[in-house]
Amino acid sequence: MTETGKHKPERMCLSCGAVKDKSELIRIMRDENGYRFDLTMKSGGRGAYVCRNASCVDKLFRKKLLSKSFRKNLPEETYRKLREEFDHLYG
Ligand SMILES: [Zn+2]
User: Fold this and answer.
1) How many whole angstroms from 81 Cα to the centroid of ligand 1?
2) Which pairs from 74-77 meet CB under 8 Å and 24+ separation?
3) Which of 64, 63, 74, 56 is nearest to 15 (CA)?
4) Burial of 7 (0-12, 13-18, 19+ CB in 10 A)
5) How far apart are the first and last CA of the chain?
6) Ligand 1 centroid vs 36 CA: distance in angstroms?
7) What's this model's pTM, rounded to 2 decimal places?
8) How many whole angstroms from 19 Cα to the centroid of ligand 1?
9) Nearest one of 10, 54, 61, 12 to 35, comparing CA atoms
């Protein structure tokens, strides 16, 4: 099987706008239980992407950029929880 003509899945970082391969990004998703990091990178539902680096992640939380992707304002509490989870998983 060849990769010829196959489109590589690329996503855009919410913080810097760079388009990258999924492997270089972190995915945040929403499901019935709320917002969380999608470690499998392929769960269904709406997702948001951010670069796997501290400056983009910082900006995401500081400027509350997730509202752009999920088209609604997320409560302070949600950002706080995600931030904690991030430090846990990737810190
Ligand atoms: Zn970025």
Assistant:
1) 21
2) 74/35
3) 56
4) exposed
5) 38
6) 18
7) 0.82
8) 8
9) 61
CATH number for region 10-90: 3.30.1230.10
Q: How far, in Å, CA of 50 to CA of 56, rounded? A: 7
Residue type, 60: L
Tokens encoding 27: 């995915």
CA of 2 to the centre of ligand 1 (A): 30
Tell me, in angstroms, the distance from the centre of ligand 1 to residue 27's CA: 12
**Greatest extent of the chain over all pairs of C-alpha atoms, in Å:** 47
- Give the list of residues 6+ apart from residue 30 with CB closer than 8 angstroms, or none: 45, 46, 47, 70
φ and ψ of 16, to 5 deg: -110, -10
Q: What is the pLDDT of residues 43-87, one digit of tens each?
A: 777 899 999 999 999 999 999 999 999 998 999 999 999 999 999
